[in-house]
Every structure is written in C-alpha cells, then in structure tokens.
Amino acid sequence: MEYMSQEGYDQLVAELRQLELVELPRVREAISEARDKGDLSENFEYHAAKREQARLLGQIRYKQRVLTNARVIDTSGFGTDTVKLLCTVELTNLANNSKLAYTITSPHESNLREGKLSVKSPIAQALLNKHVGDTVEVTVPAGIVRFRIEGIKRN
User: Fold this and answer.
1) Helices (H), 19-101
2) Considering the entire predicted model, what is its pTM?
3) Do residues 91 and 101 make contact, with C-beta atoms less than 8 angstroms apart?
4) 6-53, pLDDT tens digit by residue?
5) What b/e string do you get for 51-62 counting C-beta neighbours within 10 Å, with b at 16 or more?
6) Element (H, E) at 103
7) CA pair distance 11, 4, nearest whole angstrom
8) Which of 49, 95, 117, 152 is 20 to 30 A from 55 in CA distance terms?
9) How far is the CA of 98 from the CAs of 46, 73, 95, in angstroms?
10) CB atoms within 10 A of CB 104
C-alpha cells in the first residue's frame, strides 16, 4: 500500500493520462510511419519506436500499479506533537547550526529541491515518531549527522 497526499495522487493521475493519451498515440503513429517505409529488419526508426513503445508501456503499467495501491491520507486529524507522514519538520543541523525544513512524503512525491523527503530515506526514518526538541542521529553516506527537531507542522 502506498500512502500519499491528494496532490501527489492527482499528479500521478495526470502523468498517467499524459502517457496514455498523448505519448503512446505519438509512438504508435511513429511505428506506423516506420512500418510503411518497407523492410523492417533494417529499419532503425521502426526498432527505435518499438523500444520507445515498450518503455512507455512499462511506465504506464508501473503508474497504474502504484495508483491501484495508493491511499490518500487525510492529514486533518494529525497533531503536531510527533513527526508523521505528510508533516513538515523544521530541523537544525547541530554540526553547523543550519536550519532545514523537510516534508515527509511518499517515495513517489519526494523531491529534495522542493524540500520533500521520501519516508523511506534514512533521515525520514530517523525522524518518524520523534517530538519537538528531540535530537536525532542519522547515518548517511557522508557519516553521522545530528539534527534537533525545532518544529512540526501539519500540511
């Protein structure tokens, strides 16, 4: 089961529609045009279009499977006392006193540039169920990083 926000669910649905209604027909048209050019055994355009079609069909199946198992979370009942999925956590990196804020999201919604951290990441795993004021040690590829939780906001 994949838990996600309504925004993430809607975005995934939009991506699936784009693939099914725009990209796949475009590739099928390219296959048809390449087929009309003659000998398929040496037709590069035909083989490239078939590979593209296989890639798109794989993406479509993957997104359909995710949507089948997706459950939208209603965060209105969440408090701000503990870190949970779809909460924004304000942190202080204790090594350099820099301030950070991350929203804990599903892996399908994560985007570090937007401050959306996958719930399956080491940092999010260490933060889950912690409280404001707690100090958390996280083992990351660069070593051990210590954070202090400064605040928790519900989205």
Assistant:
1) 24-35, 44-69
2) 0.76
3) yes
4) 999 999 999 999 999 999 999 999 988 888 877 777 778 888 999 999
5) ebbeebeeebee
6) strand 98-105
7) 11
8) 117
9) 53, 31, 8
10) 25
